[in-house]
From TrEMBL:
Range of residues in the leader sequence: none
Name of a matching Pfam family: Ykof
Entries under InterPro entries matching the protein: MTH1187/YkoF-like, Thiamin/HMP-bd_put_YkoF
Gene3D superfamilies in alphabetical order: 3.30.70.930
SUPFAM superfamilies from the UniProt entry: MTH1187/YkoF-like (SSF89957)
Segments forming domain Thiamin/hydroxymethyl pyrimidine-binding YkoF putative: 133-216
Domain of life of the native organism: Bacteria
Name of the protein this chain belongs to: Thiamin/hydroxymethyl pyrimidine-binding YkoF putative domain-containing protein
Length: 220
């Protein structure tokens, strides 16, 4: 474990050394949800979007690990395609995805990540899907100093301001910020903020609950 961390400090952290990945749970609200989920997974694989990703599914969620750069782009493209495929296969019905993205604390190595050379990555580029999505988004910068007066709120506030400038952040909610827009823009907002904070904070987590086709009243 110490050897991998020493390498990360010396050469700058790679996605594999940092532990860049996500957990995703897909929930189509329809009678044939099994076919929708399995079909969406097959569609995403057929599009080549699982290449260079590690996928491990259990009864709760699927772990998606990105070992090589551009890790953030791979994860964002996979997530967008998966949710879009589920929406299409459910004929535009109500589909929800719970997503947890993490970088900087891989389960197989120590979380003592005093890593130098944290990577700055380019914003993700995802083609618009034509599908309206609403999401509740939370961002958690960890290991940002460890003191009671840590800088985590400054990172969070800057990320929300950036999302507002992008036009996807519509309103604050309890413990979250509401994002609305094309599915691709919503995913890109969360992933870009997560990656940007990850360039200065060794361990960053973001949580996103995405909803398409909800029967509840839509926000602007």
């Amino acid at each position: 474990m110490s050897t991998r961390l020493d390498e990360a400090r010396a050469a700058g952290a790679t996605p594999d050394q940092l532990g860049v990945g996500m957990r995703v749970s897909l929930h189509p609200h329809c009678d044939d949800f099994v076919d929708v989920i399995l079909g969406a997974l097959a569609d995403t694989a057929a599009a080549g979007l699982t290449d260079d990703l590690v996928l491990e599914t259990d009864e709760v969620s699927t772990y998606v690990g990105a070992r090589t750069a551009p890790a953030e782009q791979r994860l964002a493209a996979y997530l967008t395609a998966l949710v879009a495929a589920a929406s299409r296969r459910s004929d535009g019905g109500h589909v929800v995805a719970h997503v947890l993205l993490s970088r900087g604390c891989p389960g197989e190595v120590s979380c003592d990540l005093a890593v130098t050379g944290l990577p700055h990555v380019a914003p993700v580029a995802i083609a618009r899907t034509g599908l309206r999505a609403a999401a509740q988004w939370s961002l958690y910068p960890l290991l940002d100093g460890g003191s009671a007066g840590g800088e985590h709120m400054a990172h969070i506030e800057a990320a929300i301001a950036h999302a507002q400038r992008r036009g996807t952040a519509t309103s604050p909610a309890h413990y979250a910020t509401t994002l609305v827009g094309d599915l691709a823009d919503v995913v890109a907002t969360a992933v870009d903020a997560w990656a940007e904070v990850g360039a200065v904070v060794p361990h960053v987590v973001t949580h996103l609950t995405i909803s398409l086709g909800s029967p509840s009243p839509a926000e602007a």
